[in-house]
Amino acid sequence: MRNVILAAAALSVFALPAAAQVVQPGGPTYYGTLGYSQLDHSDGNLGAITGRLGAKFNPYFGVEGEGSIGVKDDDFTIAGAKGKIEHDYDLAAYAVGTLPVTPNFELFARGGYGTTQMKAELAGVERKADGESWNYGVGANYYFDGQNGLRGDWTRRDFTDDGGEVDVYSVNYVRRF
pLDDT tens for residues 28-48? Predict the structure, then answer.
């Protein structure tokens, strides 16, 4: 009897690493999102159309790439001179950790690195600025069915060159492939 228990214990030690590797049936699942992002910064509030492509390797971990193009500028006035700040684009890559709550609802946290280009114009003088940033945030996905859903998230962009921080709030349509 003791040998049977020891053999079962030895087999379970070998089975634990295999149990820890949760693999989705058929390999990774892929998704895409398209939506609107509001960028809140001390210099202005801007809007962008944001698209993402991602892959989930198991129910708990994945990666995604993100790109945005500015669509809403912010006007300002300094000493009677009119100016405008514009969001040209941004690109970023993230590692994503997911917590499935129900089959249709999941929470996630993500962290990554990105680049952003902005343009400011004041009294006919234009200046472009590029910024690299460490990005982190949280959000949730709700799926209506097996393929379609909505995503809401918040991401903080912490710029590496003392360019400050930008909070990005986003609402997106999600499509699983």
Answer: 999 999 999 999 987 778 999
β-bridge mates for residue 18, sequence order: none
**pTM for this model (two decimals):** 0.80
- Measure the CA–CA gap between 121 and 13, rounded to whole angstroms: 64
Identify the three-state secondary structure at position 42: coil
Instruction: State whether residue 147 is helix, strand or coil.
Output: coil
114 Cβ partners below 8 Å, 6+ apart? 66, 90, 91, 92, 93, 132, 133, 135, 157
Q: Where are the beta strands (DSSP E) in the chain?
A: 29-41, 44-58, 61-72, 74-78, 81-102, 105-122, 125-143, 148-159, 165-176
Give the residue carrying structure tokens 């210099």: 43
Nearest C-alpha neighbor of 47 from the set 87, 76, 83 = 87
Q: What does the alpha-carbon distance between residue 43 and residue 33 come to, in Å, rounded to a whole number?
A: 28
Distance of CA 137 to the CA centre of its chain: 7
